[in-house]
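Hi both,

Apologies for the delay on this - the queue was longer than expected. I finally got the pyridoxal-5'-phosphate-bound model through. Below you'll find the protein sequence and the ligand SMILES exactly as submitted, and right after that the structure tokens for the full complex including the ligand.
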Amino acid sequence: MDAMPAQHPDARTREAAATIPVYGQLPFVPEYAEGCDIVTADGRRILDLYGGHAVAALGYGHPRLVAAIREQSETLLFQSNAVALDVRASAAEKLVSVAPTTLDRVFFVNSGAEANENALRMAISVTQRRKVLAITHGFHGRTAAAGAVTWKSDKWYGFPQKPFDVDFIPRNDCAAAETMIGPDIAAVIVEPVQGVAGAFDLSADFLQALRSATRQHDALLIADEVQSGMGRCGDYFAVQGYGIEPDLMTSAKSLGGGVPCGAVLCRADIAGHFGPGDLGTTFGGGPLAAAAIGAVIDTIRDENLLANVRAQEARIRERCITGPVTRIQGKGLLLGLVCSRPALDVRNALLEQDILTGTSADPHVVRILAPLVINDEHVDHLAHALAAIPGAGA
Ligand SMILES: Cc1ncc(COP(=O)(O)O)c(C=O)c1O
């Protein structure tokens, strides 16, 4: 028998040796997670206010989500879109029932980038135009089309050219929106609350300007709700809080509560442009993902989580402007704590106090992407921990 190695290298060391090292990783290894806590291999209990990049909408181990996944995996783990499935039909019906009213068709995919890739392809195909406008500081994913509309993607985009013409409207510049959106534009893609940018909530006037100019020129408005959707901003989708009806909308992240999935939603007349073979994906709308989507939507409704998101947002705004935090931006539980010190220092200081938050593209913004199920105590814990961190010049 081989002798046991003298030391068991931890998962970080083994990952570093066996995967492509493209991720900066946090200095702990989760053993398991429950509720809003991650418990580490060395026994730390960390309050997770970041949710694995906004995925863990129901926290960890939510009984309803766990039961849905378990039952579905025992019944039918997978079948493709070559067959109709009750569980997929239910997920589509439920998703449409909580979406903006004019969006009544769904195409299921596997990720946020894949959802945006398809929404852009659909918009270009429907309008027969070749130029797309996006918004400065926006993030839409790392595939060819999604990367092409992501602000400052040049440093990692990696393809020799973009698949269509792209230009960026300066965020919140209504006059620029009106000038730039014309009869040559296929679509405008926008995150109503820009997540990676630091939970930056765009102005209602700007979103309204995008909506009316796209309508005027028969361009399509795509709302990227990959990060802002599924309850995170206090409505099922952030556009609903702004009173905007997009032509297409994408969802992922929280959609499956942790099971990988994504969706493109659109109006029936847009869906009518597509027939067999025009769009496709092997895993999209698979039964496991569909069961998870159904359970997440049911739970948000039955546990009144939209009201909880709004209440916890109000509590964070009331209690967390303390220590290094000078201002709070964003909506619901997609919040940016604007700090007087570098966000990375604040993120690290919070982690030393066993609270996990995130950074963002803005070096002074700490991002909160908490599970929708957080409670008063969690927020008070955050407020207390922030108060213990000195602000700049303190
Ligand atoms: C707004 C937005 N769109 C798209 C994406 C890409 O999603 P995915 O990583 O699932 O491809 C992200 C990921 O952070 C995002 O925040």
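Main takeaway for now: The two ends are 60 Å apart (CA to CA).

I'll put the files on the shared drive as well.

H.
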